[in-house]
Design brief:
Elements: E1 2-6, H1 9-22, E2 28-32, H2 39-49, E3 64-68, E4 72-77, H3 84-89, H4 92-96, E5 102-106, E6 120-126, E7 132-137
Parallel strand pairs: 2-5, 2-6, 4-5
Antiparallel strand pairs: 1-7, 3-4, 6-7
């Protein structure tokens, strides 16, 4: 387990770069944190570091977006999921098994029973308006 303190967006981008360099195809990254903690901000930086140079948007209403980076990157936002049945309908279990892609999941607690055991967990805590604490568990 590693802990990082980010005082601004630039430090968050640096952490995203460090994490991106550790990821390989087939990895699932879980992002925990309250509303406004910075999950989407971190995800945007992470997807950019994985090689996507377009616009990254939050999939709050579409449930997930896929980006063509060095490999496919699935970005899930489970905030609006009512139950795991909804996640099954979109094929989340098959996507998690894709060994040629990376999946990033915001609000993973909504689909806890479906998550791979070897997923990387990143917990984001709000310290103050600009400062965040990131706890990374692999």
């Amino acid at each position: 387990m590693e802990t990082f303190i980010s005082h601004n967006i630039e430090e968050t981008k640096e952490l995203a770069k460090k994490i991106a360099n550790q990821l390989c195809a087939g990895k699932v990254v879980l992002l925990y944190g309250t509303l406004g903690a910075g999950k989407t901000t971190f995800t945007k930086a992470l997807i950019k570091e994985l090689g996507f140079d377009g616009v990254v948007t939050s999939p709050t209403f579409s449930i997930y977006n896929v980006y063509q980076a060095k490999m496919p990157v699935y970005h899930f936002d489970m905030y609006r999921i009512e139950d795991e049945g909804e996640a099954t309908e979109i094929g989340i279990d098959e996507i998690f098994e894709d060994k040629n892609a990376i999946s990033i999941v915001e609000w993973p607690e909504k689909v806890e029973q479906m998550l791979p055991e070897d997923a990387m967990k990143i917990k984001i805590y709000i310290i103050d308006e600009n400062t965040r604490k990131f706890v990374v568990e692999e």
